[in-house]
Amino acid sequence: MMQVNYKDFISDLKDKLKGTLPGEAAQYKLAPQYRGKINLNELTGHRTGSVMLFMFPEKNIPHILFIERADDGKVHSGQIAFPGGKYDLTDENFRHTALRETLEETGIEVSVTEVIGELTPLYIPPSNFLVYPFVAFKNYKPEFNPSTSEVKKIVSVSIPDLLHNNAISLNETHQTHKGEVIAPAYLIGNIKIWGATSMILSEFLSLIVD
Question: How many H-runs (helices) and E-runs (strands) does the chain carry?
Fold first, then answer.
C-alpha cells in the first residue's frame, strides 16, 4: 500500500513529468498481441483528440478517475476510459480539448494550473484517433455530475490497487463491436481496464515506480 502523503506524491509526480517519459515501451506492456508497432510520424487521415488522467485523494491515497462509457453502440461502447474526446476547431490546443471534455463528461472543472504534464501520444486504430493524454489533479475529491448521454457511471481506482502484483491479467477476454478479442487488462474488483486506456495507464504507472 502506498503510504506517501498525497501532496508529496503530486509534487514528486510533477518533477517526473518534466523528465523523460517511459514512452512506447511502457505503453506496449498492456497492448493486445494483435497490435503491431505504429509509427506516429507516418499516420495520415486520422482524427485527433485528448484524454485526461485526473487524480484526487481519498483518505490521503491518490485515486484516478475513469468513466464507464454509455452503451451507445459506438466503437468503445461500455468500456472503462479516461474522460476525453475529439479536438474541436474552437479548442485553443489539445490541453483545452482535455479540459473541455472532462467538464462535459464528468462535471469536473479542471483549471489550467491543475494540469501538471503530458504523457506520450497514442494512436487508437479501432476509432482512428491519435490521442494526447494529459495529467491533472485536485487536492480534494470533487463533486461528479456525469453526462447521462455519454457516461454510464464514474469509476475511481486507487493507485496502490493498480500497482498491486495481481492487478494485471495478460490474457483477458473482451467483447468488442467486432466480436471477442484477447488482450491484457487491469482487473480491480469488477472493473476491467484494457485497450488504449490501459496502455496510457501503463506508461503513467511506469513513471511512478521508476
Answer: 5, 11
pLDDT of residue 75: 55
Could you say which residues of the chain have pLDDT below 70?
A: 1-3, 72-77, 177-178
Instruction: Give residues with Cβ within 8 angstroms of 129, minimum separation 6.
Output: 46, 47, 48, 49, 86, 123
Q: Mapping DSSP to helix (H, G, I), strand (E, B) and coil, where does residue 125 land?
A: helix
Q: Which of 127, 44, 35, 117 is nearest to 81 (CA)?
A: 127
pLDDT at 1 (0 to 100): 45
Number of domains in the chain: 1
| In-domain check, residue 1 | no
Per-residue exposure over 88-100, b if at least 16 CB sit within 10 Å of its own CB, e if not: eeebeebbbbbbb
Helix (H) or strand (E) holding 162: helix 159-162
CATH of the domain at 111: 3.90.79.10
- pLDDT digit string (tens) for 68-84? 988 765 655 678 999 99
**Per-residue confidence (pLDDT) for residue 126, from 0 to 100:** 85
Instruction: Quote the pTM value.
Output: 0.94
DSSP class of residue 12?
A: H
